[in-house]
Design goal:
The chain has 305 residues and is mainly β. It is built from two helices and 20 strands.
Length: 305
């Protein structure tokens, strides 16, 4: 797999908070709503809804990579009803030129996501909502820390899903990359990581669950184990070493596949859940989310307790 990218830079509002690390993850019962968790049902009116920003989310704008530099656009973030559920939706558009390209990203602002269980219900799309198909678009959910310098030994990143419906990075068809990182060098790009490649369509809704505990990063899709990462092929540790932010974005790895006028692609997230220092099964996550919804709870954040 040939892979080249510029350094990922989260929004300027990210707070470099120091969080305690190294707590041992524990198991929990299915119905328990534990202290130390984030749940968000994405029940917001718009990206400017004060509850959205008040819940520690921000929308990226302005400069930097990955993808086509300096094309991050706030207007590409919305909260429509998708298949009956209010959802976070990110749009990416291109006419094949840098000036005609827009990308989208939202993130939790603070570095407070480390060991525990991550989950989201995510809708991937294989075709654009308008325009010609064929662009090398990347639909993602991931956690990441800053890279303070090349080959920084505490750098941490989990690409829970990077879905390229039209291929890219050496693949010609739909492909989902699941990647756990040790560290990397920004320019020229070189990195140490462990990647699992799933070479088939993932279009539609899927529940993505990642469990970070005991030296293993286990990735589940729709309840089935998709990957279990501990080290890269050279034996370097890919288990996170420091707290991270939590992010969604949609971007183009290049503009090589474009034809015609403007094409627009969307990805959607129904909800997100994180349980700090807990090892949960996909079934337990589903129970907890259903309990939140049954109680009419659209947001809860007590990670710091």
């Amino acid at each position: 797999m040939t892979r080249s990218r510029t350094k990922r830079t989260t929004a300027a509002l990210v707070v470099l908070a120091a969080l305690a690390a190294g707590t041992t993850a524990t198991t929990a019962s299915a119905g328990t709503t534990a202290c130390g968790a984030l749940f968000d049902d994405f029940n917001y009116s718009s990206r400017t809804d004060p509850n959205f920003t008040g819940h520690d989310w921000s929308v990226r704008t302005g400069a930097g990579g990955p993808g086509i530099p300096d094309t991050w656009t706030a207007a590409n973030v919305s909260f429509p009803t998708v298949d009956g559920q209010k959802s976070l939706q990110l749009k990416a558009t291109t006419n094949g030129t840098t000036g005609g390209t827009t990308q989208a990203q939202v993130q939790q602002n603070r570095l407070r996501f480390f060991e525990g269980t991550y989950a989201t219900r995510f809708k991937f799309s294989d075709t654009p909502v308008s325009g010609n198909d064929g662009d090398h678009v990347n639909q993602t959910f991931y956690t990441i820390s800053p890279l303070d310098y090349d080959w920084e030994p505490t750098y941490s990143e989990l690409d829970i899903s990077e879905y390229l419906p039209n291929g890219g990075w050496g693949e010609t068809g739909p492909v989902n990359f699941i990647t756990s990182w040790n560290t990397y060098q920004a320019d020229p790009f070189d990195g140490w990581r462990k990647t699992t490649v799933r070479n088939w369509s993932h279009a539609g809704w899927h529940t993505l669950v990642t469990v970070v505990a005991g030296g293993h990063v286990k990735y589940y899709i729709d309840g089935a184990l998709a990957a279990d990462h501990t080290t890269d092929d050279a034996g370097r540790n890919v288990y996170p070493r420091r707290p991270m932010t939590l992010n969604y974005n949609q971007w183009f790895i290049d503009l090589d596949g474009h034809t015609g006028s403007t094409s627009s692609y969307v990805q959607s997230a129904d909800w997100v859940y994180y349980a700090k220092n807990e090892t949960l099964t996909p079934a337990q996550i589903t129970t907890r989310v259903n309990n939140f919804r049954s109680a009419g709870t659209t947001h809860q954040d007590n990670i710091s307790c």
